[in-house]
Amino acid sequence: MNNAKLISGISLLSFLIILAITGPEISKAMFPNENALDIGAYPRYEPPSIKHPIGTDAGGVDAFALVLNSIWPSMVIGLLAGVTATFLGVIVGFTAGYIGKNVDTILRTFTDMVLVFPVLPLFLMMGTYITHWDLFKMSLLLGVFGWPFTARVIRAQVLSLRERPYIDLVKLSGENTFEIIFFELLPGLLPYVGFSLAMGTVGAMFTEAGLQLIGLGAQNLSTLGAMIGHGLSRGVIGIGLYGQMVVPAGILILLFLSLNLINMGLEEVFNPRLRTKIDVK
Amino acid sequence: MSITSSENRKIPFFSAPFWRSGFLKYISRRLGWYVLTLLGSITLAFIIFHLMPGDPVEILLGNLSRMEGAKVGTQLIVAYYRQLFGLDRPLYIQYLLFLRNVIFRGLDFGPSFMAYPNTARDLIFHQLPWTLGLFTGAMLISWLLGTIVGVFMGWLRRRKLTSLMTGITVLLQATPNYLLAIILIIYVGYLLKWLPPYGPYDNGLQPAFTWEFIHSLLLHMVLPMLSLVLVLGAGWAISMRSLMISILGEDYLLYAKARGLLPFEILKDYAFRNAMLPQLAALAITLGTTLTGTYIIEVIFHVPGLGDLFIRALGFRDYNVLQGIVLFSIFAVLTASLIIDLILPLLDPRIREFNE
Amino acid sequence: MTTILRVRDLSVGLTGRSSIIQVLSNVNLEVEEGEILGVVGESGCGKSTLVVAVLNLLELPQMLQAGEVEFIPADGKPQDLLKLTGDALRQFRWRKMAYIPQGSMNALNPVLRVRKQMIETLTQHGMAEREADEQVQLALQMVHLKQDVLDLYSHELSGGMRQRVIIATAISMHPVILIADEPTTALDVVTQRLILQELARICRELGITIILVSHDMGVMAQIADRLAVMYAGRIVEIGAINEVFKSSLHPYTQELIASIPNQSGEHVEGLAGEAPGPWNYPPGCRFHPRCPSVMEICRQQVPPSVEQRPAHWVSCHLFRKEEGSNG
After folding, report:
1. Is B2's Cβ below 8 Å from some Cβ in C?
2. Do the Cβ atoms of B85 and B99 come closer than 8 Å?
């Protein structure tokens, strides 16, 4: 596990996770005895200073404290959505690949139908139902739209694993279906599950931030995307408060980058041909 | 007898052996899938739309009463609706009527609420060209450019330059397209003032085939296109690079080198032609996300396409327009996917034989 | 007999993160014109690496550490093949030295027809299209394949047919040397025998020298003239085939031969233990952990190669180069 990409990806991600978790504490430490997140806590649109590293926003909230408190919600949404999408995708993909024949055809057609469906418009429409958002609802909804990709990948992998000779051997040796699934097939799927999880998480964060940007996201959730969206709509750039968009955007990009690096690293680990050096002690 | 005589050449396209070879079966199966998926998605859309809260007619009345000329319009619309859509009839009848209107009455989605008396179809058709242009352009350019860049990134893997490019593309791929759009708008649009930061063309110009208009159009479209193409293209480049690298480890590549073939020929006929196949198949899968991305970019850049229309219609709860846009999106994605699936067997002889 | 290829002190390693793993060490081989030289050894002993190294096709993480491969044409100066680069190397390939790869099942490009692949091998070396046509036809005739094969794709051919196409391609330029790496592994026994016999026949007719690499002693027994035995990256014995079979010198060779099932149904002996991989080659003589005649010196020193009998070399401490005493 000495892959450069994997290591840098994991380190970056770990750093960001720590930042996310400790963010609220850091912001409290920066502003002792004050609640920097209260609307009107400070004058609006203050320029950057030592006290307010990137100024205050339209509601008089300290932007830096806001950023620190927004990382965790963004991550949680991404992760929950990713897990939902991967979970659903694995179930559908595995069933289709393992059972095959008619079940496979039906599931595959269904998957394709959802895949083809334009996610965003549908999502926006669902948004009109739901007046009060919370983290869970947002994540679940995002996850529900992400599963087709995973399903396809898992199905393809299950199909190819199923045909390998060692499965026949194992069947002959008397393991029952349950054992076959868990001990022989699933380990081969793990890299793909991991990949799907990473991709699903990234995709969900993308979409959530994008929705916030257009102004149609969950209004009462504080996420990095929300900050960017508000910054855009309230024209903070014009006032010179670049930081309020650059910092949250930068963190988002770093998050995506770390997950992508992990993905690429995983790909190199599991596909030996991509390597240029032999793994030697 | 020379073996290059025409009898032994490739089996020509219109000859019997070609058509009997299973290709025809593949086409018909593929077309069947296309129709099935189309119907299925439309049905799905219909169901979702009708599950939404709020009676469209009530909302319509509510909207109209805020506008001028409401009294006369109200009666007409309500009557029109009842007749056309049978809103008080059971759901499955509404569904059938809906299908009838869409398929047989030339995509009649009904009147638009927010822009009455224009029909939903009028609005959609008016804004469709922008989306089509952006979508097709982004899809094709990003795939072609990205694939070619990826070929070289994979083939010349060990040079420093390609390592640098790999780093850049990884970063680009990780950036959501709207973020890139914002960055471009800020830097190129406002700070450097090289290109117009929003709008499809300069204010005050009318669409026409004049150079002035076309010039303005092209300038305005650069940033939106860039936002889409750079991010998508980076993704394609990385994927092609991985494909090339794994193909480079294949037996036939080694054999081609051992035979002393020209390096460029090996790149072209052995590496690229094989790596391109899964890359093309992947294009079909990503069409949905590409379209969604196009919509977002339209909104950011104020390009009057379907994405922009959708947002406006959403605010007005103009269901007919919303439905129409969703249907068009499905149709566009499915059709492009079909085209790709029909091209694939022409490029990969292994597919031609298999009846999966 | 004239030597046409001389491998001298060839060493190849694999680059690791901080160290290099030795795969081939000081391999020496001489190939006589017109002969069929067999190189036999277990899976993992480095035979394929040897082939790839001689062909100058090593790729990272494989790395050439030392050695030369001298090609000695009848007319002209000897050249070190490992020093050839660029177009000179490309032109040399196939014209003078052809190759039958180990994975012949996957050696053909799946998206190109056989015709294109066979003809372009010739035309990209400067042959005119018309002449290339003829040569390809002739080559297919020599392997008893119908011209129809040319219009097919790789996946439409059976294993045997693919193998014959590969052989036809290999001989189509009338090379001087042909290196065949496990040419019959994926085939059934009957086809194996046929293909081998044809290969030998064709090459004798065209005067091509063959280096035949395989793990199968039976294959060697059928057509090889001389045999080199490889173990853990080194050549341990080399000599005329009858001598090596009937009076083998190296303990490993003896075990190999003893493990061939023969028709009288005698008890077949196997060898205890496993051949080491490159990452755990033992010091000294690499065979010493499994050798029934192991001595103290075997654990410490690599045995030098000794011409124990005329043209029969062995690398084993049982046979010492002593002044004035031989045989």
Report:
1. yes
2. no
Bridge-based pairing state of the strands C36-40 and C62-71: unpaired
pLDDT digits (tens, 9 = 90+) for C236-294: 999 999 888 888 888 888 888 877 776 666 666 666 777 888 888 888 888 888 888 88
Task: Extract the tokens encoding A259.
Answer: 């997950």
Residues near A76 by beta carbon (within 8 Å), at least 6 away in sequence:
A135, A139
Say whether C15 and A2 touch across the interface (CB within 8 A).
no
> Which of A66, A59, A82, A79 is closest to A224 using CA atoms?
A66
Q: Which 8-state DSSP code applies to residue A119? A: H
C128 touches chain B (CB under 8 A): no
pTM comes to: 0.81
**Are residues A229 and A212 in contact, defined by beta-carbon separation less than 8 angstroms?**
yes
Contact assignment for B8 to C107 by CB distance below 8 Å: no
Q: Could you tell me if C110 lies within 8 Å of chain B, comparing CB atoms?
A: yes
Q: Which of B249-258, C142-151, C253-262 has the lowest mean pLDDT?
A: C253-262
Kindly identify which residue of chain C lies nearest to residue B249, measuring between CA atoms.
C59
Question: How many other CB atoms are found less than 10 A from the CB of residue C173?
Answer: 21
Does A109 contact chain C (CB < 8 Å)? no
Mean pLDDT of the region C171-194: 85
Alpha helices in C172-316 (DSSP H): 189-206, 217-223, 241-246, 251-258
- Written as six digits, the tokens of A70 are 């927004």
Q: What are phi and psi of C51, to 5 degrees?
A: -60, -50
Whole-angstrom distance, CA of residue A69 vs CA of residue C212: 70
A26: left (phi over 0), alpha (psi -120 to 50) or beta: alpha
Under 8 Å between Cβ of B317 and B53: no
Render pLDDT for B266-280 as a digit per residue (tens, 0 to 9): 999 999 999 998 889
Closest CA to C257 of C269, C239, C240: C269
Verify whether the Cβ–Cβ distance B265 to C137 is below 8 Å. Answer: no
pLDDT, mean of residues C229-239: 90
Q: Which two tokens stand for residue A58?
A: 């339209």
Could you tell me if A274 lies within 8 Å of chain C, comparing CB atoms? no
Indicate yes or no: CB of A228 within 8 angstroms of CB of B179: yes
Q: Is B252 on the interface with C (CB under 8 A)?
A: yes
CB–CB contact A279 C16 (8 Å): yes
Answer whether residue C198 shows pLDDT above 90: no
What is the amino acid identity at position B83?
A: Q
Top-confidence residue, A191 or B171: B171
Q: Which residue has the tokens 């790395």?
A: C63
Is the pLDDT confidence value at B121 over 80?
yes
Separation CA B338–CA B31 (nearest Å): 8
Is the Cβ–Cβ distance between A210 and A121 less than 8 Å?
no
Would you give the distance in Å from CA C73 to the centre of its chain?
A: 20
| DSSP reduced 3-state for A185 | helix
**Three-state SS at A174:** coil
**B176 contacts on A by Cβ (under 8 Å):** 206, 209-210, 252, 256
Radius of gyration from C-alpha coordinates of chain C: 21
Chain B CA closest to residue A118: B288
Chain C CB within 8 Å of residue A277 CB = yes
Distance from CA of B282 to the nearest CA of A (A): 11
β-bridge mates for residue C113, sequence order = C153
From chain C, the residues in CB contact with B257 under 8 A are 57
Q: What is the signed CA dihedral for B218, B219, B221, B225, rounded to 10 degrees?
A: 100
pLDDT, averaged across chain A: 75
Within 10 angstroms of residue B352's Cβ, the number of other Cβ atoms is 15
Q: Which residue has the tokens 């010179």?
A: A240
Instruction: Name the DSSP class of C113.
Output: B
AA identity, residue A15:
F
Residues 14-53 of C with CB under 8 A from A: 14-19, 21
